[in-house]
Amino acid sequence: MSQKGNRLDEVLASLLDRRLSRNQLRSLTTVPDGMVDFSSNAYLSLSSQPAVQQSFLARLHTTAANATATNPGLLGSGGSRLLDGNSSHAESLECNIADFHRAQAGLLFNSAMDANVGLFSCVPQPGDAIVYDELIHASVHDGMRLSRASQRIPFAHSCVWQEHGSSTATTGTKCLEAVLQSLLQGPDGSLCRSGERNVFIAVEGIYSMDGDLAPLAEIVDCVERYLPRGNGYIIVDEAHSTGVLGDRGRGLVCELGLEDRVWARVLGFGKAIGCTGGIVLCSSTTRAYLINYARTLIYTTAMAFPTLASIEVAYNFITAGLAEPLLKSLRFLVQETHRLLLALCASNSAPADLLRVNTESPKSPIIPIFTSQPRNLARYCQARGFMVRPIVAPTVPKGRERVRLCLHAGNTIAEVAGLVEAVGAWLAAWRAETISREETIGREARVEARQSSAPGIAGTAKSKI
């Protein structure tokens, strides 16, 4: 290795050490066998359903048996979709997914992150503005950084109207209404009012860290009130709400009947759908534009057939209504878990900084357990066979650290009860350790006080002189 390379490693190592000193160092881990999953995003447990597994294997077998020289079958797609990686199967899948979610068209991407980066980087034109929820996903931030939009403005998380609070206490960020008003009154306000300047509004259906839902109906009303010329374009990231909300898991937009008032949706298949990949649901014109300008589509190898087949069989299972019992079970587990956690906090009079859950009923399978000791609590639960993950700054704001629970249709009541029992045992152990530590400190302080008040050897000798 060259001297220059060694110097670079030293710089990189110092940056890693700095992150370690802040207790923010990330590392890759694997899940040991036998762990109960309360961490992954596979909310419907689709990949473990025998019917889905059998359909997937049958689809692969049929394709392999019918392979030809021009359609070799199972492995790589052969190139980007604009070259040799496209297929009638991919286009048919896009149409079926768009129809299911009541959208005009859809365009597949290799991941929801690629979909967000591709969409936000190329659609906003010079002079346009992007207004986004301050807790929007990192992929949207990456897309915005690459975009040609003139302004990128956050609004306070899920805060729409000024009468509900014009800013948050923690960030001072304005609500959506105030942000839109400032755009209309700013230097380019006349262009916004006339409809010549586009404003893109980015929100999520379910926010992955808190599990809360966007107040989407209010957001749509607000945008249409202040941008009545139709130049307000709402984009909803439904990665965590697909498969969970709405009729047969169609998502938040369909649940609220807002398909014609939301400009675009980004769906991820890596959560409840149990696969990988993503799709932008949009108009046919927008789809054609993305094919021409979205770099995350143009310059990457297209999905291979096994990926397309997995998405296909998962959607067939969902559209046939076979996932409804799973959804019913999941919703029951979410409410039961929340009830048990609330009871645990109440019965132990847990300090809010040590253990707290939101009192309102969860709207999603994500339940955050707020604690000042997320890593300690997560390690304790993992040692007892429950896979939960600590979430710390900078992923969440400092002071909002938590252990994030993700419930799945495949979890059982016994597993939920065992997890809550483990959290209770951790709380008791932490309190006992704290009391012991305080008692030790108290004893040491009393001994030191007695020693300082008693005449020492030097003082005695001095008095004799």
Automatic annotation (TrEMBL):
Keyword Lipoprotein: no
Pfam families: Aminotran_1_2
Source superkingdom: Eukaryota
Domain Aminotransferase class I/classII large: 35-423
Known cofactor(s): pyridoxal 5'-phosphate
Transferase among keywords: yes
GO BP: biotin biosynthetic process
Keywords associated with the record: Pyridoxal phosphate, Transferase
A GO molecular function held by the record: transferase activity
Family according to the record: Belongs to the class-II pyridoxal-phosphate-dependent aminotransferase family. BioF subfamily.
UniProt protein name: Pyridoxal phosphate-dependent transferase
